[in-house]
Amino acid sequence: MKKLVAPSILAADFGNLQRDVEMVNNSDADWFHIDIMDGVFVPNISFGIPVLKSITKHANKTIDVHLMIVDPDRYIQTFADLGADILTVHYEACTHLHRTIQAIKAAGMKAGVALNPHTPIAVLEDIIKDLDVVCIMSVNPGFGGQSFIENTYKKIQQLKNLIEFSEASTLIEIDGGVTDQNANKLIEVGADVLVAGSFVFKSNNPTDTIENLKNIIN
Question: Known catalytic residue: 175?
């Protein structure tokens, strides 16, 4: 399977959001990665439903929504209605994770779980076969532009082993601090999808940056 690149819209220019969405449409990127933050689960507020509605109006690739919010169950149907293809919730925010995953799938979306840097892979043993995506946070969630946490490589290998042992088909997504310097190693240890925010949107030519990243990992 080809390895995927998902530019993180959190790092886009919000004054030129349609321009940046169309750039991703016309690039070699595979997914739009969209972070929804509530200022409670994480110490930052990103954007809410009206902005997501504007993005999905123009986006023509897979919409990968990453909820960094408390009580995500309240909004599952809302994000389905807005056009999310994948909905990822945080393990740390879900008291009844299995129920949440089933509700996401019942709403017609693929289901993902994100793990904070301090959360061990082992917590997913009983649910891995139900997951389409596991998003390993390689920075602490809440802000863009952070430095990559080196322990991530070990967690990817542990997750890959769990997926293979369980005969699951779960994709491994890495979110935070991804650049052309660590992309190849991330893929080598088992990653399938790389989320890249600042590295893409703060570069001189985001389209070329995405193309180069795709070439490195495939």
Answer: yes
